Recover the amino acids of this structure.
DNA sequence: GCGACAG
DNA sequence: ATCTTGTCGC
């Protein structure tokens, strides 16, 4: 699929923040988004200890069967130091490369990280959404910012994630008595719709099948 | 001033 | 992200 070029590339954290602020206005935060996407792509990156070598993996699943439709993996290097809030710049180049090698265009992007639940409202999920023009959402394993009341212990329970007086995401329990995940909007999708898809993609485990598949593909490629 | 801080 | 063994429980 086609993906918008990502230069200029930042040389400093300050420049990276400027890029986020410049792209943020391009976000489409209207509408509920795709109610019944046929396919969803999971994106994940695995790192090699010690070096800056990494593997960016993308696995497209059929939303109805949750079975893989296509895979793409690219070995690359971390393109930026790890800085909370600028995390996307580490993996963006390699993830984009993996997306471009896809022969099909997924209906939804499920990213491992936050979208709007970000200090400048422009996390990885937002960035990938703007670059691809596709609906995107973020499902993060850990909290970055915002306050919330612990959701009930049953699968499907959720609580709003609030920051600066705004709802930037939702803490969602995908399995009974299991640590919740942090869902936030990326691009061209609403929070309710995003949570619905996150839940549908997680029938048996805490994390969505999309990211589970991408994770396995990524670390498998890192060894080969 | 002291923590917290996506992966 | 990754380093790491056994262990509790269905």
């Amino acid at each position: 699929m086609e993906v918008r070029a990502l230069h200029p590339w930042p040389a400093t954290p300050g420049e990276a923040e400027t890029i986020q602020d410049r792209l943020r206005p391009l976000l489409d935060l209207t509408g509920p988004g795709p109610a019944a996407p046929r396919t969803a792509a999971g994106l994940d990156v695995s790192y090699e200890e010690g070096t800056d070598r990494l593997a960016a993996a993308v696995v497209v699943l059929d939303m109805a069967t949750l079975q893989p439709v296509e895979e793409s993996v690219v070995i690359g290097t971390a393109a930026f130091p790890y800085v909370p809030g600028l995390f996307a710049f580490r993996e963006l180049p390699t993830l984009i490369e993996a997306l471009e090698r896809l022969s099909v265009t997924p209906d939804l992007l499920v990213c491992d990280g936050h979208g709007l639940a970000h200090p400048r409202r422009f996390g990885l999920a937002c960035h990938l959404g703007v670059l691809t023009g596709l609906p995107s959402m973020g499902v993060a394993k850990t909290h970055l910012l915002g306050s919330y009341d612990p959701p009930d212990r049953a699968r499907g329970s959720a609580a709003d994630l609030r920051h600066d007086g705004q709802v930037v995401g939702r803490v969602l329990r995908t399995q009974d008595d299991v640590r919740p995940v942090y869902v936030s909007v990326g691009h061209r999708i609403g929070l309710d719709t995003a949570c619905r898809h996150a839940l549908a993609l997680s029938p048996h485990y805490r994390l969505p099948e999309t990211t589970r598949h991408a994770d396995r593909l990524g670390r498998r490629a890192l060894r080969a």
Notes: The helical segments of chain A are 13-23, 88-100, 124-132, 191-200, 209-223. The domain at 34-223 of chain A is CATH 3.30.2170.10 (archaeoglobus fulgidus dsm 4304 fold). The mean pLDDT of chain A is 96. Chain A has one domain: 34-223.
